Amino acid sequence: MSMKEEITSIAREMGLDKIGFTSKERLKDAPPSADLAYILPNAKSAISLCVALDKAAIRPYLSKQDLWAHNTDHKATYFKLKLVAQTIQRLLEDKGYQAVCPVINDEYREGQPFMAMVPPLSHKYMAVASGIGWFGWNQLVLTPEYGAPVALTTVVTSAELEPDDPLEEGDWCQDCRLCVPSCPTHFLSMKDEETVTIAGHTYRHSKARSKMRCLICCGGAVGVNDHTDTWSTWCPIALELPGPDDDQVFEQRALEYAKDPKHTRLKRLLDFSTGKGVTNWEEFDFCYLIENWFTCGNCMLICWPEMKDRKENLRLLRTSGKVTKNDTYMRVSTLE
């Protein structure tokens, strides 16, 4: 059995849904956060690991019927990825190779512009280069089997492992753009686009607006863009923030809100994003497995493989109404 086959076998036995391999050479045309040498100077290969989220918990979450079933499942996927990544890391080290498995989310390179939030390594780029999925309009990885509701991580190693081919190019999004109206803070654009080249393939995706829009919404510091909105995320906080046309004013307004002592979560998110973030697995465990809970993620959760399912997911979200603080804390799981 080759080393690649051994790694794949272990990952499958531990419950991984998808695994892919890529090489440093394949990533030479990708953006800086695909540079394996940044986290391991003599890196030759990367192993992309993927676990799908439980769809049985997603629709009750989107429709405001159940907050906790999806939260429990989402955190469980992270824990599984951590165990698989660390097991593969130990296997490679036991065979005499160097290996690193960076934390899944929220670690950032230092010395970057305000709100750049550039990770040491992009797990999304690794997944696309490894054939796990494509890049979608929502700037996320879309898998043919599960859509976008997946969790990803990576193991980088000095071992030379045979790379997998990226998936064939195609418009898997089918220009549906349903991810755009799923975001209360207008992070995604309906028309403006950017491209990214990974492993010789070029992908279109929505042009990024200020990352602060995504940060404070998915971070649970705001759940509705203004008081006139008819639906919210699972966060009960409403802030009066500008629409999609002015990122600078949006950032200034959010920074002003963060000075108010009652918006401590907002201040902590903004401080966190301009630092190094979560830099080790112990901090990650506390941040994701103990302290935090998910209130959004809509642009990922609505994006299932079938168009009819995407439309239904968006309908459930946008007719789900708003939550209050009591709703948020008192809902309990209704799924077995």
By secondary-structure content and strand pairing, the structural class works out as alpha+beta
How many domains comprise the coordinates?
1
Task: Write down the secondary-structure element order.
Answer: HEEHHEHEEEEEHHHHHHH
Query: Tell me about the biggest sheet?
Result: 4 strands, antiparallel
Tell me how many strands there are.
Answer: 8
Overall body shape:
globular
Write down the Rg.
Answer: 20 Å
What is the CA-CA span between the terminal residues?
39 Å
Q: What would the average pLDDT be, to the nearest integer?
A: 89
Tell me the strand order in the biggest sheet.
1-2-6-3
Low-confidence stretches: 328-336
Give a structural overview.
With 336 residues, the protein is of the alpha+beta class. It has one domain (3-330). 35% of the residues lie in helices and 12% in strands. The strands form 3 sheets. The protein has a 4-stranded antiparallel β-sheet with strand order 1-2-6-3, sandwiched between helices. Strands 4-5 form a two-stranded antiparallel ribbon. It starts with a helix and ends in a 6-residue tail after the last helix. The model is unreliable at 328-336 (pLDDT under 50).
